[in-house]
Amino acid sequence: MTRTDLPDRRAPASDNAEPKKRRSFCQAVTRAAFRSLVCILAIGWVFFAVDNPRASADPSATVSGDQVRVVTEFVESYCRDCHNADDAVGGLDLETTPIGQASWDDATGQWSAWENIYKRVASRQMPPADAYRPDNDEYVVATQTLAGVLDGVAESKQTLTPSDSMRRLTRTEYQNSVRDLLDIEIDATRWIPKDESSHGFDNITVGELSPALMSRYLTAAEKISRIAVARPTGTPMGLTVRLPADLTQEHHLPGLPLGTRGGTNIRHTFAESGVYEIAVRLTRDRDEMVEGLYRPHDLDVLVDRHRHHRFHIQPPENGKDFTHVDTNLKVRVPITAGPHDIAVTFVSQGESLREIKRQPFDAAYNRHRHPRQQPALFEVSMVGPLNDTQSDPNKQLVAPEPTGPVDTPSRQRIFTVRPDDDSLASQVAAAETIFAKLLRHAYRREIGPDDLAVPMKFFRDAVQTTVTTSESATVSHGSNSTADDRFEFGIQRGIAAILVNPHFLFRIERPAETAGLHRVSDTELASRLSYFLYASLPDEGLLDLAASNQLSDAAVLDEQVRRMLDDPRSDSLVTNFAAQWLYLKNLDGVKPDLRRFPDFDENLRRAFRTETESLFRHIKEHGESVLGLIDSDFTYLNERLAVHYEIPGVVGSHFRRVDLSPDSNRGGLLRHGSILAVTSYSTRTSPTIRGNWVLENLVGTPPPPPPPDVPALKEKQSLTDASFRQRLAAHRENPACASCHALIDPVGFSLDHYDAVGRYRRFDADDTPVDSSGTLPDGTEVTGVKDLEASLTRHPEMFVTCLVEKMLTYALGRGLDHRDAAAVRRIVSESAQDDYRFSSIVRNIVASRPFQSRYHPPKDPS
Predict the structure, then answer these.
(1) Any idea where the DUF1595 domain is (predicted)?
(2) Exposure winner among 67, 286, 382, 707, fewest CB in 10 A?
(3) How many Å apart are CA 432 and CA 731, to the nearest integer?
(4) In terms of C-beta density within 10 A (0-12 exposed, 13-18 middle, 19 or more buried), how is residue 766 classed?
């Protein structure tokens, strides 16, 4: 068949049109017989691949003549009119090098090109909607056959995308690792900068350790080791927590006692016992007047939910001078070392002034970001421990055990043994036992004498050095240090050394001696598994199995995955993986124009995040199909979010599951305020951003970035009164924009019934009726989010493939390419047998070749 024999593919043709007589290769064989042939080929290939893992060094030898014929006929019928030697639309020429003559060497780029073709055809994005298109049966046959070809090539090549052998812990991984190593909660954001993201996740590009960053880690290690050992030193430490400016504090906030409103609860680990001063500042407006202080209010300070002090706040008599209103909002509290909840909150008065709804475009009323009807907290600071004179000049407060440490959770974790006596030999023996246990956990492997040498050197230096007057404050609360003081100070110094050691800060996989595909060791597999599911260190169970080389056993490994998914630490898949995949971490940067959306605040921002995390957590914990993320018939709401969504009957600040009626405009991810807000501008929705988000994060076929010479959307003078859809259509007049926008915009417009803060609407901001209709890349006509969801669930493998790609990227800490595609298809196929349950996807990822193997490319001979 020559190109001139083919009908015009650029115009759609109906089923009874003349060109349809020769429209497909399926007329050579009946569709049923053809599908049977493909199934036989596919089944035969599966057994061939399993029985012959290195069957052929030549990838072309694995491609059968029948497979070549099927793919070639499809390309001749539907692809070559645009992708030929003369046109090569998108830089793709399928005429010069057909699949039967393809070179699968990475240098030619043809393997990558055919994987991209497969993805575009499987997602029904190609041929384009305005071209001559195959029917569903033809799509299925072609994609199954092409997948068989590509899987055969991948099996024969025995390769994967190379990855780095050393990767620094991300800030989140560092924080979680410290938590599990020392049993203390820290806020790593106080010391460690934010990690850069690549491929959608922040665990991809981490590698280098600059001197400035190393200095940050040194500071963190000193602070953390002091908190963990919790020895009295008499050196004060401070913490200030500033509340978001747009946090509305008119009502009860989650986590605080009933009968209160506003405020904050701070979970903090105190380094040592003593008296701490807690100081409170109230929010002020631009004129330095305390907002909302029109009558007296009571403010409670609570320690571990028990009220310690109540302030009575009075407005100034003249109503103007607020200088000293919060000057004396300070209280000194005896606190023991270890973790405590410090809460500061207002006593609810029951009958508060009605909050006047902020009106859009009222510049005079909205001159303050969030005008308040009642006072609110600006910041809470804590400093201590204070010495006797600082803490209580009148000797009325008694500090809790100021001369000795409290048995905190971290001390229980660290001091598993004590010296038998005060001799140096006894102290060294105890220290070696303590460090040996910590090092095995911290370095995520079995340790040797060289590993012990570094922390033991710091320990010996600390216990043997003559303590000077200045050093005594660090070692002991008094002027004379005891042997026990020096022992614990030495342990503290050793822990600090562990926390800055490369074996803790980096995940290290030993390079293989030869090039090729190699299984990772059991120890490396344990780390891969724990940082995938926990974003933290392997626990003792994993390390024990790795040490005995049992973890690589498929049954043992699968049992561990099930166990770990039931562990609370696997919630990092919600708060870390899902938060990055779904852009929830971008919510902090969502700042809608308050003149258009005056009721948006931090409370709503937090509620958005909680709703989406709660749905993902439900799917994970209940082992349900991940398709529930798309078409869920329930959601999680508190009163604030329910009011925003106009759903009645939800009272209180706590979140709870709410079952939805069939006609509800809420449910799956595409109806969540979080997703709708992060894909909007501050003043309006963006069908382009929303459509691109869906294609990238739910379908897995993101369009290429726009050409650099194409300007952003601007209103033409003649279209200033047109609808936004018309203005965007004018933007597509640029040929450089048309092809991508044809894919993106219909998807985005299907979500246009939701405004920039996720509220359902029937009219646009200019009172134009919302038009959410469009034609998807596969030719499906949609009107609204319900039709879009139906399209996604009608071909569930597309969404699941995208999810698997995202999760595998996160699990491996590297980007994927054509060399990983066959493994992704296998994970999806095996998960389909269990209805795409979340646990099945995770287990199949862990069992996959990319997760358990590493590819070492040949050395460059030059």
Answers:
(1) 431-509
(2) 286
(3) 70
(4) exposed
- 704 DSSP assignment: P
Other beta carbons within 10 angstroms of residue 182's beta carbon come to 26
**Phi, then psi, of 683 in degrees rounded to 5:** -110, -15
Contact yes or no for 772/751 (Cβ under 8 A): yes
DSSP string, 461-480: HHHHSPP-HHHHHHH-SSSS
| In contact, 266 and 343? CB cutoff 8 Å | yes
- Compute the chain's Rg from CA coordinates: 32
Three-class SS of residue 238?
strand
DSSP class per residue in 171-212: HHHHHHHHHHHHS----GGGTSPPPP-BTTBTTSS-----HH
Average pLDDT over residues 408-416: 95
Contact between 536 and 521 (Cβ < 8 Å): no
289 burial level (CB within 10 Å; 0-12, 13-18, 19+): middle
Query: How far, in Å, CA of 114 to CA of 345, rounded?
Result: 61
Structure tokens belonging to residue 460: 């010996």
Instruction: Report d(CA 202, CA 577) in Å as an integer.
Output: 10
| H-run or E-run covering 856 | strand 853-856
Confidence of residue 568 (pLDDT cuts 50, 70, 90): very high
The whole-number pLDDT of residue 156 equals: 87
| Burial degree of 387 (CB within 10 A; 0-12, 13-18, 19+) | middle
Q: What is the pLDDT of residue 350?
A: 67
Q: How many CB atoms lie within 10 A of CB 676?
A: 25
CA dihedral 665, 666, 668, 672 (to 10 degrees): 110
10 Å CB burial of residue 2 (0-12, 13-18, 19+) is exposed
From first CA to last CA, the distance across the chain in angstroms is 47
Tokens 């690589």 locate to: 552
C-alpha distance from residue 23 to each of 78, 319, 531, 547 (Å): 9, 83, 51, 61
Beta strands in 304-411 (DSSP E): 306-313, 330-335, 338-347, 377-386
Give the C-alpha separation, 623 to 614, whole Å: 14
Beta bridge partners of 311: 299
Please check whether residue 318 is in contact with residue 387, taking contact to mean a CB–CB distance below 8 angstroms: no
Domains annotated for the chain, with CATH where assigned, are 3-157 (no CATH), 237-391 (2.60.120.260), 409-506 (no CATH), 575-796 (no CATH)
Distance CA 740, CA 148 (A): 29
CB count within 10 Å of CB 230 equals 26
3-class SS at 313? Answer: strand
Q: What gap in Å lies between CA 394 and CA 715, rounded to an integer?
A: 71
- Dihedral (CA of 89, 95, 99, 104) sign: negative
| SS3 labels along 649-682 | CCCCCCCEEEECCCCCCCCCHHHCHHHHHHCECC
pLDDT at 398 over 70: no
Q: How many residues does the chain have?
A: 862
Ordered DSSP codes for 43-89: HHHHHHHHH-TT--S-GGGGS-HHHHHHHHHHHHHHTTTTSSTTT-G
Spatial separation of the C-alpha atoms in residues 585 and 574, rounded to whole Å: 12
Instruction: Name the DSSP class of 223.
Output: H
Q: In one letter, which amino acid is 276?
A: Y
| Tens digits of residue pLDDT in 261-309 | 999 999 999 999 999 999 999 999 888 899 889 999 999 999 999 999 9
Q: Which of 423, 435, 383, 400 lies closest to 277 in space, CA to CA?
A: 383
